[in-house]
């Protein structure tokens, strides 16, 4: 798997700023589990693929409204999972609706869906653009602050909101069962969310205070029942401590996206200690240009390219590092959407540091 593919599953700002969120991001919501959901027959909504869904209360049906956009890497990464859910459970009553949101350009969406073909075989609708009735009546009341953002609906009422990856086979089976108790489910989910938020608050506090040894101890003692999250936190502790030897061990013990994220985080967050060169040199054996570049996709290449440039710098090839950043800056400057996202200002800060003979962790430039 290319490093660029992991950007589809992780926020660029998360990689840069090392912020963590293990629960769905939401502000104070008025559309909560148990509440009746609005109609989908709204001004601006255009059905791009599949039969329009006029009601969300048909008996025996479970509706998954998955909000996405063509510009959103994590949304695109979620499509195979959502498509898999649709194919597995449509005969059992699951109705999947891919609602394109926060994006202007119906034609762009139509082309994207057509190009996806069977890889996006479920119903797809265009909400009406960045400012739409759907956003006002669904996303804002549900407290959505980012996408992908999924809403589960049964009998016309909201069951849950979540990241699409949290909509598992078991959850779908449970929500489709005849004895499903939406209120009981909502209460249990709220309890779990409160516990997760308390856990994340502790993690965030230790990170903000830069108490890396305490963070490591917390991960070892409190996160044993969540190995993936535990490895993530232990990796962050090692990276911020500049413990490149430990980072190398963790990279060697991981694979796929988890390994790639370790590479990204280490490049974006770890200080330039004496043993960084050995790690960077080793990383470049895998982190080659052909490994990470997806031609023409600036958003997905952005963080991996910066990461590789820093590895080049740490390994001693400063000219190649500068050339890589210069090339990326030219690509961003030539792309209006990339410029509007703030990528250019980040690269300006990196270039300024390069002229001073430094290539600090990119996360420090986001503060």
Automatic annotation (TrEMBL):
Protein name per Swiss-Prot or TrEMBL: TlpA family protein disulfide reductase
Signal sequence bounds: 1-26
Keyword Acetylation attached: no
InterPro entries (alphabetical): Redoxin, Thioredoxin-like_sf, Thioredoxin_domain, Thioredoxin_ResA/DsbE_sf
GO molecular function: oxidoreductase activity
Natural source organism: Sulfuriroseicoccus oceanibius
Keyword line: Signal
CDD domains in UniProt: TlpA_like_family (cd02966)
